[in-house]
Amino acid sequence: QSGIVAAAGVYAIENNIQRLQQDHDNAKKLGELLAEIDGISIDPASIETNLVFFEIDAKYGLASQLSKALAEKNVLVGAFGAHRLRACTHLDITENDVIQTAKLIQECLNEGISHHKGTARGPYSRG
């Protein structure tokens, strides 16, 4: 089974290494946009790859509630604990998608997320 995973990695290196910078640039852009949203905490300078970790202020609700609200808007962002979330940019995510995602996060916070059932522990929560 490890050969299947290795084959995907080899393919990415041989065919997509040049465009990986786009994923990193999109992640950085998302971080910058999220930093402008009240209720979201993130240090855009800490983003080095295509993974974007950020926190939601407890007064808005739980990460899992925001994740569910975003899923209803076809945006998949994972909850990693009570208030920590993770977004990932990749081949199928454009700069426009990143801009729209930030707008939808703002929209969810404005609309409120408390009506979504949530849990303080995500699948990868710490502590």
Please give a handful of descriptors for the protein shown:
about 130 residues, alpha+beta, 4-stranded antiparallel beta sheet, 4 strands, about 45% helix, about 10% strand
* Sheet with most strands: 4 strands, antiparallel
Beginning-to-end CA distance, first to last residue: 32 Å
The proportion of residues forming helix, as a percent range, comes to 40-55%
Tally of alpha and pi helices: 4
List the helices and strands and how they pair.
Layout: H1 2-16, H2 20-35, E1 40-41, E2 51-56, H3 63-71, E3 78-79, E4 84-88, H4 95-111
Antiparallel strand pairs: 1-2, 2-4, 3-4
Helix pairs in contact: 2-4
Describe this structure in words.
By secondary structure, the chain is of the alpha+beta class. It is built from four helices and four strands. A four-stranded antiparallel β-sheet has the order 1-2-4-3. Helix 2 (20-35) packs parallel to helix 4. The protein is globular. The N and C termini lie far apart (32 Å).
Condensed summary:
The protein is an alpha+beta fold. It has four helices and four strands. Helix content is 45%, strand content 12%.
